[in-house]
Amino acid sequence: MRHQNSVFHAITKHIPWGAFERLVAAHGADARVRSLTTKRQFLALLYGQLAGAESLRDIVGALESHASRLYHLGAGEVSRSTLSDANRLRDAQVFAGLFAALAAKALPSLREAVAAPLHLIDSTSFRLSPLCADWARFSSNACGVKLHVVYDPDADCPLYAALSGPKVNDISVAKEMPIDPAATYVFDLGYYDFGWWARLDAAGCRIVTRFKANTKLSNVVENDVVEGSNILSDRIGLLPRRLAASRKNPFADPVREVTVRIETGKILRILSNDLDAPAQEIAALYKRRWQIELFFRWIKQTLKIKHFYGRGENAVRIQIAVALIAFILLRLAQRTQAAVNSPYTFARLVKVNLMHRKPINRLARQGPLRMPDDRQFRLALDPC
Known about the structure:
Layout: H1 7-12, H2 17-27, H3 38-51, H4 56-65, H5 80-89, H6 93-110, E1 118-128, H7 133-136, E2 137-139, E3 142-152, E4 157-164, H8 170-174, E5 184-186, H9 194-202, E6 206-210, E7 218-223, E8 231-238, E9 242-244, E10 247-248, E11 255-261, E12 267-272, H10 279-287, H11 290-301, H12 313-334, H13 343-353, H14 374-381
Parallel strand pairs: 1-5, 5-6
Antiparallel strand pairs: 1-3, 2-3, 3-4, 6-12, 7-8, 8-11, 9-10, 11-12
């Protein structure tokens, strides 16, 4: 009988192991390691994310029950204390670097042919245990961290991720993000910085965001709008010349103000540096910002990222990086089959078949197992 590897083994084939080994060597992650190598640590944590494990004890028990199927993975049984120590001490940059390498490798195969890439920028918060107060205190009775992400909705893939304290402003992290020339960047009011906008504009990027209520344009030229549409006005003008009495605004080029009434009746003033595209296209680009919110809810609810395996900063950084890696691996694995179109249903099928020996393209053959309707799941999460 022909040997068939497990579903977990098939998913890990998409990992750029050469890049992982270089990261391990560069950071000395396996120096003086006796038993639990960085690879075995990573595979244990990846199993936990894909299986929905809520604790290290769950991971350890599951790997012990599947010990006979771990050999071909390069994995093995682990002890809870050893895994906990590795999460606390081993450099999280190894896992962050693997996420970056995997995202770069995955993007060409996940993204459809588009004229210009679309990048959505936003952040989400994770509430942590009060036991994390020594490094993640937000207030007298709350602890947390923020995950900042650049997300490509056409590829359904995160491109960049950074973790910060809960009090760090979004724009402070955005200024450290790499800029993709000629891309379209869509973001909300948390990234309201004329200097940063000027950098994006100088790189040839298209900007779509919202005006603050107190920002007025000067030297305004009115464009015609279609009567009866949800576009109320379309104007071109200049931003205020000064940020304060002694600081000149570095963004001196003309910008566009598209005023639109959304489905709820609320009126939005949308800003863009694209002076030529139809106003409806600008409004539609800003509406796509909800897709990054759907991504955040997906990783929190489907990958159970709200449950953290450790209380230290390093352990939290490692787990979030591994969760993002798990998300991309699921997207890549789903592209290798055509039987299941729903990302949510595919993730659930992977979860229940993770250590079963069967091809990825046969996951849907589950007999009486019923999966939730993906359309209902997406509608429940769509804030629009």
